[in-house]
């Protein structure tokens, strides 16, 4: 008996399969390869299902960004939980988790670059802003536990997020020339400088 052209599944499973297929297509083919047809073929479903479950291709990419961002959030939270109770150790764990698997991953890197390249589209830009705001909120809470003054937390969180993105990009682009250990050292030095300045200003 021949295999049907498209598989049948429950609505939630179909939706999730499209999100997972989108992440794979973005990782493999980049933003320019993320067409409705390519994603439907990857998921083994009819192209018409993309419009049924999402607001077109941009809506699907935005939801995929949210799903992949949540996977990163889970990895960061796990790193913080494993760091113990010391507030500074918890901040360091949150920051340096990006330099090890599953975040320091070539497929995730390719997918994330595709998200960024599509961020001129309003629905994807909105998802990006919400996602990065959630990361900064987490950082601000961790920094508050370290005693960083409220007036400093927002800008420090922005600076740390930019630092992590830059080191993560370099690590993924040039893994032979730049090591995870070096990325951790650089990030931890920068964190210490923020804590030192905060301590001096509070005297």
TrEMBL record:
InterPro entries reported in the protein's UniProt record: BetI_C, Homeodomain-like_sf, HTH-type_TetR-like_transc_reg, HTH_TetR, Tet_transcr_reg_TetR-rel_C_sf
Pfam family of the protein (one): TetR_N
This protein's record includes keyword Transmembrane helix: no
The UniProt record lists the keyword Protease: no
Domain HTH tetR-type: 12-72
SUPFAM superfamilies, per database record: Homeodomain-like, Tetracyclin repressor-like, C-terminal domain
UniProt name for this protein: TetR family transcriptional regulator C-terminal domain-containing protein
Species for this entry: Sphingomonas echinoides
């Amino acid at each position: 008996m021949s295999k049907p052209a498209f598989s049948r599944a429950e609505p939630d499973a179909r939706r999730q399969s499209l999100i997972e297929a989108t992440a794979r297509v973005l990782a493999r083919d980049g933003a320019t390869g993320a067409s409705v047809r390519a994603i439907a073929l990857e998921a083994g479903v009819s192209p018409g299902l993309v419009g049924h479950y999402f607001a077109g291709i941009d809506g699907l990419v935005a939801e995929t960004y949210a799903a992949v961002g949540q996977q990163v959030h889970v990895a960061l939270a796990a790193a913080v939980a494993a760091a113990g109770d010391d507030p500074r150790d918890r901040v360091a764990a949150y920051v340096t988790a990006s330099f090890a698997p599953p975040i320091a991953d070539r497929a995730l890197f390719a997918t994330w670059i595709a998200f960024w390249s599509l961020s001129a589209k309003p629905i994807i830009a909105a998802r990006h802003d919400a996602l990065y705001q959630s990361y900064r909120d987490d950082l601000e809470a961790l920094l508050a536990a370290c005693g960083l003054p409220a007036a400093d937390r927002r800008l420090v969180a922005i600076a740390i997020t930019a630092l992590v993105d830059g080191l993560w990009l370099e690590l993924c682009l040039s893994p032979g020339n730049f090591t995870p250990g070096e990325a951790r050292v650089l990030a931890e030095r920068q964190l210490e400088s923020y804590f030192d300045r905060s301590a001096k200003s509070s005297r």
